[in-house]
Amino acid sequence: MDMTVAPDLGIGSSIVGKATSRIDGPMKTTGAAEYAADFHFPGMVHAVPVTATIASGRIVKLDSSVAEKMPGVLLVLDHGNVGKLYRTVPGDQNATNSEVRAPLEDEIVRHWGQYVAVVVANTLEQATEAAAAVKVEYEALPANVKASLADYDGKRKSVSKRGDPDKAFEAAPVKVDQTYITPVETHSPIELHASVVVWDGDRVTMFETSQGVVNHRVVMAQVLGLPVENVRVVTRFLGSGFGGKLFPWPHAALAAVAAKKLDKPVKLSVDRRMMFASVGYRPRTEQRVKLGATKDGKLLAVRHDYLNNTSILDDYDEGCGEATPYLYSVANLEVTSGLVKRNMGAPMYMRGPGAVPGLYATEAAMNELAGELGMDPVKLRFLNDTDKDESAGGIPFSSRHYRECLETGAQKFGWERRTPGIGSMRRDGKILGWGMAGASWVALRLPCTAAVEFCDTGRVCVRCATQDIGTGTYTVFAQVAHEKTGVPLDRIDVFLGDSSLPDGPTSGGSMVTGSVLNAIARGAENAIKKLQELAAETEGTPLNGAKVETIAFTNGRLHAKDGAAGSGTSFSDLLKAAKLARISAEGKTLATWEDPKSKGFSLHSYGAQFVEVEWEPEIARLRVSRVVSVIDGGRIINPKAATNQIAGAVVMGVGMGLMEETIYDERTGQPINGSMADYLMATCADAPEIDVTFLNYPDPVMGEYGARGVGEIGLAGIASAITAAVHHATGVRVRELPVRIEDLLESKVV
Amino acid sequence: MQSFGYVKATGTDKALAGFAVNARFIAGGTTLVDLMKLGVEKPSGLVDINLLPLDKIEPTASGGLMIGALVRNSDLAWNSTVKERYAVLSQALLSGASPQLRNMATTGGNLLQRVRCAYFREPSAGQPGGYGCNKRVPGTGCAAMDGFHRVHAVLGTSEHCIATHPSDMCVAMAALEAVVHVEGPNGKRTIAFADFHKLPADTPQIENALAAGELVTYVELPKPVEGAKSAYLKLRDRASYEFALASAAVVARVEGGRVRYVRVALGGVGTKPWRSHEAEAALMGKEATEANFRAAAEAALRHAKVRRDNAFKVELAKRCVVRTLKLATTA
Ligand SMILES: Cc1cc2nc3c(=O)[nH]c(=O)nc-3n(C[C@H](O)[C@H](O)[C@H](O)COP(=O)(O)OP(=O)(O)OC[C@H]3O[C@@H](n4cnc5c(N)ncnc54)[C@H](O)[C@@H]3O)c2cc1C
Ligand code: SF4
Fold first, then answer.
1. What is the 3-state secondary structure (H, E, C) of B213-233?
2. N or C, which terminus of chain A has less Cβ within 10 Å?
3. Average pLDDT estimate for B253-274
């Protein structure tokens, strides 16, 4: 893999911006890192849900008499005895829940796999066996799990509108009008969801697989009916989430109820089969895209009407139109959405929600438009580039280098050597297909607090109740603490994933880095100020009596501004002399929407994806062989971790383009390929050669570090670049993902 | 998981003696333990055969190879004799599962691996309220017929079961005309490979020719055919860790441009490892040309029966046969 970072554009001379290995790497490789399900407590018992085997109906009888008498069984929870569990306050931004309904709230079944009871026993095996022995009788109703959403005739919401797109489309000399479909995809991180719950009186600690411990805590307080200060949520390490672990799922509250009733620690680990039914998925989308253009390729009209499925009680909107209104310049545009109810579990944000399926559709349509025009698809994008956000009244972008992404990508990929004819490019007996697409993703700075602490041991601690979901958050935080304090990385401790720490953001939307770094920097500055004051005040230390303004802080030492950096005193000696264990200060980040300096700007990251596929018609074998990904994601704090994010997203994109699809049995509503052997994702063997480039322009509006976050944008555009490459190689235009062998067998290219 | 007895047998006689009604031998456990966790297999007892002296690959007096039932798939694939003289087998093994699984999986266990039909693997299949599955409980129907059957078989199916035989190794062994050695309460016997696996017909619950308590001890490969070449090709949705949508094993000898010896077997499309006598007959004595390969492939799939979502396998299998014939007949 190739990793290129444009020359560092300044801000200090520290390791910020330098490829830095994970500070938690050794913990992970030696198994010392404890994930939620790794927590064990004396007397801990195990909970296993009983799941519905129908997709719609009502429970008429739930007989747990046999299960209750089985060895080791302690409790069977169901609707009748679960006690009071509450819903969360609608619209409460601090308490986002995954499902509207409280667990076991009623005896109505709305999707296959819904929890109808929970069995708790001394061992996992006992609980599993007893769960299978709970007899549930249902009165089944016809369930609707039909994949196709095409027959939807309900209401549509206008998400964004300007001009008169229908009239402009009618009049446009060149048109594309196509429907693009993405299937249900299941997040499937390697780490299963789990809750380990320990009560101490009426206070509860929950070891969770959570991408947002602060939100999780508030939700749990509301659902369990507790004061929020009685709840602590811990996620020290996460085996990834891809969005599936953003907000709590019913198993967490059920584990808490069981632990309370039994007065014992309880572990509930959701197994892989349940992971396909009860912890979210990216819903199916059906997106009709209409593009109208002049003969020269200038967009005249864009219409993007999408549907996505949702569950019976939850109104989940995939937001496919996220990037549509601002990516290109066009006077007439409308985006509408429609939610189609199905007897399926609640959908949930998955890496790049909205923008990823949305850009798949709109960028695929752009590629088709280029085909209609006989124009190079890169040129078509140049032509329609814009320097203001037309969806927001023409406000400026904080930092937009979309054109440079396209140019750099084209140059690195060798795009000028592309011959447009279908099947016209060959190498080593294989046909090559080249395709490209643009990418974008929103940026925001979320409000948060971080604490930085100097200890008499010579160590520096950073604290924030955000999470490292496997992306390298621990490390980038340490990098900034190092930059501010000069203390080496191996003496910096970062504490995350605990709701008792200062409030940090949910790890979603690629926003943690861009948000928290500012708070850490402010916290470090504030703590250094305290040290400077302490140095001036502490008797018997070299700077005692000096004016605070004359005291400098360099590489962990306090010294006179006009003296050498090695003079004065180290902060640890100072703390010892002052008889203090530690000195700490908090720093805050102001939300971009509250900050007058960022309010008037449209904040987004950009990217360009170039994909090569190899096609062997003789055996209908198609593989993605090469991807060039150029990302304008603001300043890159840790190129190593960032490259890892983009490369990982590219591999995920190969899965999205060619493999991933959750298949529901339309008779029962069961996700029928719900295992890691049957739900196909890209393996290492499917990973192409990947060349990642960051433009590395700091976004001045994002704050001191100018970082925007790169967790999701790498996935955007990959699928449309793949389908374009597939068309180039095979002549088959696939508009329903994933591209399958069935589709490719129709190719006439030999 | 229900409780079960467990004995670790130290010799073949002990293994056979330890076998009770509804017991299972356990080798690598990669099929069996998985299915026990799913509640598909509910043995009363396990007889662990891993200590039996069946882990060698040895030449036979007649120039063939005797493969112990406990030889791991990885060891067999990387054995130098297998790589040189039975390339098709090495290639087939290496295309299967993942390195971790191949390190555990044994030759005997691979022969006896069970189908990957999603309905068969459902805990409640064949039970009241569960999916119909004639293989699990005869007479309960077949949920795959009108359900998810994209990966199901198009050859050798019956109205009772359309599950694909999932093995890669067995496809190569079918083309190599291996012989299975077994030992049971009534002594030793050998079973020709073609007779080892059974078609579902109206008894899909019976998958092979083993009698209760019979142990697979060896798989014998005959002496390689003089001058023949062999190849295995597996086609699937991703590059690794997936069962075949279609695969082919070919052993062939071409002399003077004509096919003088050929064995063709297909995987991923049949309810058992699918030896295609039709393809072989279409090729014998013919010129080794693409047109004749295509004709052989057509012959192999002539009797294919497709369902709603697996029709593409017919064309895919044909392309697979043609390419594999090319691989095995060109230097
Ligand atoms: C995720 C996954 C992916 C896979 N992918 C592939 C693939 O792509 N291609 C492929 O070919 N295979 C694949 N496999 C199957 C794998 O090859 C088999 O599971 C393996 O070969 C079984 O061998 P084992 O020794 O583990 O058998 P076990 O699980 O120990 O036994 C399997 C069965 O054989 C019986 N048995 C074992 N040994 C004997 C004996 N000597 N005599 C009598 N009975 C015996 C057992 O009682 C049991 O019923 C995959 C498996 C998994 C789990
Ligand atoms: S195909 Fe065979 S294994 Fe699958 S459901 Fe039908 S009978 Fe059962």
1. CCEEEEEEECCCCCCCEEEEE
2. C
3. 98
Spatial distance between the Cα atoms of A736 and A148, rounded to a whole number of angstroms: 11
Per residue in B284-327, pLDDT (tens digit) is 999 999 999 999 999 999 999 999 999 999 999 999 999 999 99
- On the question of pLDDT at A11 being above 60, the answer is no
* pLDDT at B231 (0 to 100): 98
Confirm or reject contact between A230 and chain B (CB < 8 A): no
| Contacting residues of A for B146, CB less than 8 Å apart | 667
Give the confidence band of B1 by pLDDT, cuts at 50, 70, 90.
low
Residues of A acting as catalytic residues: 712
The pLDDT assigned to A10 comes to: 34
Residue B145 alpha carbon, nearest atom of ligand 2: 6
Give bridge partners of residue B57 from the DSSP assignment. B67
A73-131 pLDDT, tens digit per residue, is 999 999 999 999 999 999 999 999 999 999 999 999 999 999 999 999 999 999 999 99
Helices (H), A209-283: 213-224, 250-262, 272-275
Q: Cβ of B130 and A620 within 8 Å?
A: no
Percent of chain B past pLDDT 90, that is, above it, reads 95
Tell whether domain A148-182+285-370 is in CATH 3.30.365.10: yes
How far, CA to CA in Å, does B139 sit from each of A193, A398, A516, B125?
A: 38, 67, 62, 12
CA of B267 to the centre of ligand 2 (A): 17
Could you tell me the distance, in angstroms and rounded to a whole number, from the CA of residue B114 to the centre of ligand 1?
7
Does residue B40 line the site of ligand 2, with CB under 6 A?
no
Residue A9 clears pLDDT 50, i.e. is over it: no
Domain ranges of chain A: 1-6+397-444+593-750, 36-143+187-275, 148-182+285-370, 445-589
Interatomic CA distance for residues B210 and A228, integer angstroms: 64
Give pLDDT tens digits for A628-678.
999 999 999 999 999 999 999 999 999 999 999 999 999 999 999 999 999
Tell me the C-alpha distance between A297 and B200, whole Å: 60
> Is A685–B240 a contact, with Cβ atoms under 8 angstroms apart?
yes
Question: B237 and A741: CB-CB below 8 Å?
Answer: yes
Asked if residue B121 is part of any domain, the answer here is no
Tell me the shortest Cα–Cα distance from A49 to chain B, in angstroms.
15
For A169-213, write each residue's pLDDT tens digit. 999 999 999 999 999 999 999 999 999 999 999 999 999 999 999
Question: Contact at 8 Å (CB) between A725 and A613?
Answer: yes
Residue B304 within any structural domain of the chain: yes
Determine the topology of domain A36-143+187-275 in CATH: Aldehyde Oxidoreductase; domain 4 (3.30.365)
Q: Do A682 and B312 touch (CB under 8 A)?
A: no
Distance A116 CA to ligand 1 centre (A): 35
Q: What is the ipTM of this complex?
A: 0.96
CATH code (residue B251): 3.30.390.50
| Residues in A touching B119 (Cβ below 8 Å) | 672
Three-class SS of residue B178? coil
Task: Examine the pLDDT at B226 and tell me if it is beyond 50.
Answer: yes
Structure tokens at A460: 């520096």
Dihedral angle sign, alpha carbons of residues A72, A74, A79, A84: negative
Q: Which one of A53, A63, A619, A673 would you mutate to disrupt binding with B, by most B Cβ within 10 Å of its Cβ?
A: A619
Any B CB within 8 A of A129 CB: yes
Q: Which fold has domain A445-589?
A: Aldehyde Oxidoreductase; domain 4 (3.30.365)
Beta carbon of B133 within 6 Å of any ligand 2 atom: yes
Which residue is listed with tokens 């005997």? Answer: B108
Nearest CB to B1; choose among A129, A620, A677:
A129
Please report the atom of ligand 1 found closest to the CA of residue B216: 42
Q: Which ligand is nearest to the CA of B29?
A: 1
Residue B3 is predicted with a pLDDT of 84
From B6, B14, B25, B241, mutation site for ligand 1 pocket: most ligand atoms within 8 A of C-beta: B25
Say how many Å lie between the CA of residue B272 and the centre of ligand 2: 14
- The verdict on residue B20 lying in a domain is yes
Q: Which domain covers residue B43, as residue numbers?
A: 5-47
Choose which CATH entry (1.20.1260.10, 1.20.1250.20, 3.30.365.10, 3.40.630.10) describes domain A1-6+397-444+593-750.
Answer: 3.30.365.10
B/e letters for A360-385, b = 16+ CB within 10 Å, e = fewer, are bbbbbbbbbbbbebebbbbebbebbe
